[in-house]
Amino acid sequence: MIRVVLVDDQELVRAGFKMVLDVQPDIEVIGEAGDGAQAIELLRSVHPDVVLMDVRMPRMDGIEATRQICRGPDSPKVIILTTFDLDEYAFAAIKAGASGFMLKDAGPAQLVEAIRAVHSGDAVVAPSTTRRLLDRFALHLPDGNREPDPALATLTAREDEVLHLVARGLSNTEVGQRLFVSEATVKTHVGRILTKLGLRDRVQAVVYAYESGLVKSGQIDHGE
Question: 60-102: per-residue pLDDT in tens?
Fold first, then answer.
């Protein structure tokens, strides 16, 4: 069972999400909060797998709440939900540690699919979208001149190659085609990369690659 907490300052919105999720056989809503501060307090007593988080809320917004939630050990996955289709929000959400970014007008099926995806370790925001956002906001990122992360030395040559390709926005299928290996093999490599580097998902791998200087803004594959 996937345990979910809903965080939104509009009770009607929470009620709508709850109606959609309560009919799913594998999803259970275990708590609700009206703002980010209340959500953090709630998470001290309940332990969800996934948090659906609004962006604009009183007291503490969803981005700050996500940042505080995701820096804790064994933290839940966070999907940011917003009515604002703005790259700034997606970028801030990704930087804060969110595993997903969706518009509130997404259909019920998309919402359920997103929850199941992040729970299984995937990311709702496509790596290519992450890359586009990071390129646009490259000025806000470190210049990549800091000391290399020692964890990078634990990667094999093939894992390093896969990380570079994933960070440039290629899907598992495209990475497999580039390296002449199966998609299953790529998934195995990605899983090992995330474990070795202590990353949550592919989106965080893209952020990591940019911030560590492995990939520079503009190193993009456009043929997707």
Answer: 999 999 999 998 778 999 999 877 666 677 778 888 888 888 8
Q: Using alpha carbons, list the distances in angstroms from residue 75 to 13, 66, 170.
A: 24, 10, 27
Percent share of the chain, pLDDT over 90: 48
CB 49 within 8 A of CB 4: yes
For residues 66 and 52, the answer to whether their CB atoms sit within 8 Å is: no
pTM beyond 0.70, yes or no? yes
pLDDT, tens only, 136-153: 665 555 555 556 788 888
57 and 63 Cβ atoms separated by less than 8 Å = no
Map out the domains of the chain with their CATH numbers. Answer: 2-123 (3.40.50.2300), 136-211 (3.40.50.2300)
Residue 28 is encoded by which pair of tokens?
A: 């259970």
